[in-house]
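INFO batch 0412 | record 1 of 1 | parsing
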Amino acid sequence: MDKKIAIGCDHAGFPYKNSIASLLRSKGIEVVDFGTNSAESVDYPDFAHPVAEEVGAGKAAMGIVLCGSGNGIAMTVNKHRDVRAAICWNEELARLARQHNDANVLSIPVRFVTEELALAMVEAFLSSDFEGGRHARRVGKINPG
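INFO prediction complete | emitting tokens
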């Protein structure tokens, strides 16, 4: 797989980040890690914005962000044009986020999923493609004028 994926998290997401990065690297995917690199309390926007900038500029094909609820970090990356983050808590949502919404950032709520499930969601997200068709029309309406 010839992709580059940006990853970022806050202190709550840190426990899963390295496992996800290892999974990606095992698939031959280049990982751009924007941190954080410890469980010390940090502000999630400091790690979300660089991921969104990388994805929005087309430097990374996709992004993965992690925080306790998945909400704050998803809200932050979704402020960037052409970035579509989806908070997912099961494999089906991860697949549908790609297939129907052309999500390019997976937001994982680590306080609500196991590490095993987080890895499975990453696999589902990566292995799913945007279906286009009626979904393309809808996705095209996400970014205002």
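INFO post-check: The chain has a mean pLDDT of 94.
INFO record closed
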